[in-house]
Design goal:
151 residues, Jelly Rolls, four-stranded antiparallel β-sheet, 4 helices, 30% strand, Cyclic nucleotide-binding domain-containing protein, cNMP-bd_dom, RmlC-like_jellyroll, Env_Response_Regulators
Length: 151
């Protein structure tokens, strides 16, 4: 794929919405593409995470291990999905395993690249901060909605 295709894809990722084309170009230029074949694992639950992945093509199955040791389906990720966004900012462990259900490609955005974007462009840092706060608030609201089940 061309750099312009990567820029267009990144512009559709909600976390990157509002980034200028120049900033998206810098990120796309510094990122790396990775091809996966059907059945190949992109990353495993519990592994140290040092990057995020944007799905460029294909479909990925997301699974985690339940407390009883069984495999739990967490969903699927398709084109434009950002996986492990927090790993682009901070050291974390992968919360699930991502496996290619079809042949596909991802764009790998490593932590040093993304942190450099945040450091060099304060407007980007403010946008990312606001979006992560919104995501956390939505997650907390969802958990509050489940409180009745456990009371």
């Amino acid at each position: 794929m061309a750099l312009s295709d990567d820029i267009a894809l990144l512009s559709r990722v909600p976390l990157f919405a509002g980034f200028s084309d120049d900033k998206l170009r810098l990120m796309a230029f510094g990122a790396e593409r990775r091809r996966l074949v059907e059945g190949q694992t992109l990353f495993r639950e519990g592994a140290s995470a040092d990057c995020g992945f944007v799905v460029a093509s294909g479909i990925f199955r997301l699974t985690s291990t339940a407390r009883d040791g069984s495999l739990r389906e967490e969903g699927e990720a398709g084109e434009g999905t950002l996986l492990s966004e927090i790993a682009m900012i901070s050291a974390v462990e992968r919360k699930y395993t991502a496996t290619a259900l079809t042949d596909g490609e991802v764009i790998r955005i490593n932590r040093p690249l993304f942190r450099r974007m945040l450091e060099e462009y304060p407007d980007v840092a403010l946008m990312v901060d606001a979006r992560i706060r919104e995501n956390l608030a939505a997650m907390i609201d969802g958990i509050r909605g489940l409180a009745g089940r456990f009371a």
